[in-house]
Amino acid sequence: MSFLNKQRRFLAIVLLILLLFTGVGGCWSSMELNTRAFVQSVLIDRTEDGQIQLYVGVPLPNRMVPGQAGGSGPQTAEPFTFVGKKAENISQALRLIQVDISRSLSFGQTRVIVVGRRMAEHGIDEIIEFVNRQPAFRLSANLYVTRNNVDEVMKIPLVFERFLSDILKRYVSTHVTLDTTVKDFKLAKYKGGDILTPLVVFGKASEISAENPKKNMWMGSGGAAIFSGGKMSDITLNRKELQGALWISSQMKSSIITVYSPTDGKEISCTTEGVSTSIKPIIKNGQISFKIKSKAKAHVLSSMSDIDFKDPEVILQVEKILDKDTERRLRLVIDKTRQARSDSFLMSQYLDWRYPKAWNSIKHRWKSYYATELPIEIDVSIRLNRTGGVYRSIKQETEKIR
């Protein structure tokens, strides 16, 4: 072996040893874990006098494992708390919170941000700016809006989950609401600040009061807020229209559509799955238009009609009814975003990516063009693959036997 090869081998061994040492070097910073408070949720709103109201939700380590070593809290104590302050801006409010707690706040595990009505109507640029300045803040953190006071969130009893952030994240993972993240807002802001954000609503739940009379509220998905220019519009999507927004954005996992039979007008309920939607800009004779094309599979969930699903012609008729009903739902969603002058589905980006010259010629008046002039075609194709174990309703079969 030559001297040069020996040197290379020696250097390779030294580098390998150094790499092994880096793996057992402990924490990457001098701050220990037991000196930190990991923020899981952020609640933020504006007061009537224009101040910022900020709450941070943090787990309580002394209550995380009750009844065991290191867990001194009682079994009924909640394993987290909210700390809140008012100030002129977010940074000042955060500083006041930090002064009151014994641990250093860390945003590395922040999963949800809930924005109150006043803050959403004023605009959330300040929130996005603050998040951008926090290196540890996750861009995948989900954003929610509520028309209530943001402190209503703290009255929610945790029955199925241990933390508030787990409940809100479940809404997204189970596809019952929109998956709108900090990253999505940043991208939308670059193109004008138009986006849809999930709404959370609150109400009284008397059946919970026996468990905790002070926390007899329930929380649920309440549709979607429409943002235009970074500010929340007065126009919102209700729960049914939210399903259409999920469909257009390809976030719909499954849904139930109830239509009326072409034979006797009675109800037929179908479950749809495998939803796939594309948004395509089209330029023809200098005219800009869009086509929203969606496909899905369906099977019959229940039927009160005497319709015979053995007949292929009947299946085609039901498919057309499903197509038309879904097209109507999607059209309602698009029309509402146009009323709010919000390009919520970022059609401008599709146009910019595919036809940059056309986009440059119209971008200065895109808002008004989208709201009043842009032709948008919606084409839905649902295929009824399964009709269930019976071809007619149980009621019809029973009457036939009698």
In helices, the fraction of residues equals 25-40%
Mean pLDDT: 82
Structural class: alpha/beta
Number of separate helices: 12
Unreliably modeled segments: 68-74, 396-402
How far the N terminus sits from the C terminus, by CA atoms, comes to: 97 Å
Shape estimate: globular
Structurally, the number of domains stands at: 2
- Radius of gyration equals 27 Å
The helix/strand series, from N terminus to C terminus, equals HEEEEHEEHHEHHEEEHEEEHHHHEH
Strand arrangement, major sheet: 4-3-2-6-7
Give the oligomer, counting copies of the same chain as homo and different chains as hetero. single chain
% residues in beta strands: 25-35%
Largest sheet: 5 strands, mixed
Annotation, overall tally of beta strands:
14
Structure in words:
With 402 residues, the protein is an alpha/beta fold. The protein has two domains: 33-237, no CATH class; 238-402, GMP Synthetase, Chain A, domain 3 (2-Layer Sandwich), CATH 3.30.300.210. The chain is built from twelve helices and 14 strands. The strands form four sheets. A five-stranded mixed sheet has the order 4-3-2-6-7. The chain has a four-stranded mixed sheet with strand order 11-12-13-14. A hairpin with a 2-residue loop joins β9 and β10. The longest helix is centred in the last third of the chain and has 28 residues, at 312-339. The radius of gyration is 27 Å and the shape is globular. The N and C termini lie far apart (97 Å). Mean pLDDT is 82; it is low at 68-74 and 396-402.
Short description:
The chain has 402 residues and is an alpha/beta fold. It contains twelve helices and 14 strands.
